[in-house]
Design brief:
The protein folds into two domains: 130 residues, Phosphorylase Kinase, domain 1 (2-Layer Sandwich); 154 residues, no CATH class. The chain has eleven helices and seven strands. It has a four-stranded antiparallel sheet, sandwiched between helices. Helix 2 crosses helix 3, helix 6 packs antiparallel against helix 7 and helix 7 crosses helix 9. It is globular and about 55 Å long. The chain binds adenosine-5'-triphosphate and magnesium ion.
């Protein structure tokens, strides 16, 4: 229901055709950070089917929706740059927004290029504010392609592909091929260790560099999932199936042209960063109870 409303607001016209989202409504800029709470309240009202005409008019007027499964908005950060605000959902059983920021923070500490993210407390509501990576410092748009698009797999089941196919695509379309292949290897190791099992092809993307060459976009939408089977949505390889293990990853290292010492170094660096998850979470303001709820996701305890 919520998704339908989001789409109605922004993405799909009455005839069902795609309407590109320019981050603007009626020529206006996305709302400033100070409106986060109003955006959250109106979004929550829609999510719980308690919205008023004012809520709808407000959200439509602001043109802030970005689609996707979870409530979120476009927002203008304090420095004027564009960001995405992700709200807690009424159905959350855990501190999901904080855990996403924790994952993005840990990813950086593991040597991964990840979207800049922080928690903004808005009247006790923890909202994840994630900087957009598809804009230049002057606000121009950098072309973005999801891995599903680059692989020509938009009509396929987004979970029906493997990381070795992304490696193949990088070899054809990549700008800095081997660096990105190693970055991908590092991201897979990270996903395994935090049980980021929502790693389907729409959660990987590429930014255009020049002359039809692409680089991996910063990592985004990475989350620790406790109590979910340790099975990747994007398989490590066709042979590995959904198995999510460092052994399965190391078995394809040569396909990534990563030798054993480099593989060991990457895995050691990622493991040592992920081991700090409790401390980093607690420095972010997560309580012991909030952290405990995610223990099962982190393989390194
Ligand atoms: N930091 C960012 N900069 C630019 N675009 C982004 C950024 N983060 C996400 N996106 C784009 O917005 C889309 C939705 O974001 P995201 O995947 O984080 O949300 P979600 O609601 O968790 O999605 P899902 O539908 O996977 O549950 C992404 O697929 C990507 O295209
Ligand atoms: Mg996503």
């Amino acid at each position: 229901m919520m998704k339908a409303v989001w789409e109605l607001c922004v993405f799909v016209t009455n005839t069902g055709s795609f309407k590109p989202h320019h981050g603007k409504a009626n020529g206006a800029l996305p709302p400033p950070l100070i409106e986060l709470h109003q955006l959250f309240s109106s979004s929550r009202a829609i999510e719980t089917n308690t919205e008023t005409a004012q809520d709808l008019a407000y959200l439509q007027g602001r043109g802030t929706s970005l689609g996707g499964l979870r409530p979120k908005c476009s927002i203008r950060d304090e420095d004027g740059s564009l960001a995405i605000g992700k709200f807690p959902s009424a159905s959350d059983e855990r501190a999901v927004t904080k855990a996403e920021v924790l994952a993005l923070t840990l990813a950086k500490q593991a040597g991964i290029q990840a979207a800049d993210a922080r928690i903004v407390m808005s009247e006790q509501i923890p909202i994840a504010v994630i900087k957009r990576f598809d804009r230049t410092s002057t606000g121009a748009r950098i072309p973005y392609l999801s891995a599903a698009s680059l692989l020509g797999a938009v009509r396929d089941d987004p979970t029906d592909h493997s990381y070795t196919e992304i490696v193949d695509a990088l070899r054809i379309h990549g700008h800095d091929v081997q660096a990105d292949i190693e970055e991908l290897y590092r991201r897979i190791a990270f996903s395994i260790l935090i049980n980021n099992v929502d790693d389907h092809l729409h959660n990987h993307g590429f930014l255009h560099v020049r002359h039809g060459q692409w680089r991996l976009a910063p990592a985004f939408d990475i989350n620790p999932f406790p109590h979910r089977a340790r099975e990747l949505k994007t398989w490590i390889s066709d042979d590995a199936g959904p198995e999510s293990s460092l052994d399965a990853l190391q078995a394809v290292a040569l396909y990534f042209q990563i030798n054993k010492p480099l593989s060991d170094t990457i895995i050691a660096e990622v493991t040592s960063a992920v081991k700090n998850w409790r401390q980093v979470g607690s420095e972010m303001g997560m309580s012991k109870t909030e952290l405990d709820a995610f223990t099962e996701a982190f393989e390194v305890n």
